TrEMBL record:
Identification of the protein by name: Uncharacterized protein
Length: 134
């Protein structure tokens, strides 16, 4: 099912969630699922991946700016809107998350670990600078 043209300006968070979830569940591929959220609903990768990571636990990981501090090669993905540019790099991002040593953990658990690691590193830097913005 290719993405359906939807006037994003007319959509809001009150748009029919049942219709959205039906579109996602009827999709035949993960790329199509991501495309629906990005192209049709105007979400960027961080929000779209968060939604899909809760619906498809084994297929999606949350693309978070904090996690990108651990994987800096993927930072530019969050600002892209072209699914054909996002998808191959997002697959690489997923593989990077999966490749973390803790193979016994799920993608969701790895998401939380990476977020926590990034938060801890940021906090350490803030403490070293005495929370100065300089």
């Amino acid at each position: 099912m290719p993405a359906v043209n939807v006037d994003v300006k007319r959509l809001s968070f009150s748009a029919d969630p049942k219709y959205l979830t039906q579109l996602i569940f009827k999709s035949v591929s993960d790329k199509e699922r991501l495309e629906i959220l990005i192209k049709n609903y105007g979400f960027r990768l961080p929000i779209a991946s968060a939604i899909l990571s809760f619906l498809y636990l084994d297929n999606f990981t949350i693309y978070d700016y904090r996690v990108c501090k651990v994987f800096p090669d993927f930072i530019p993905l969050g600002n892209l809107s072209d699914i054909d540019k996002i998808w191959p790099r997002y697959l690489e991002f997923i593989e990077a998350v999966k490749s973390i040593d803790e193979q016994q953990y799920t993608l969701q658990e790895k998401d939380r670990m990476l977020w926590g690691y990034s938060f801890r590193e940021s906090l350490k830097k803030d403490i070293e600078k005495c929370f100065s913005k300089k």
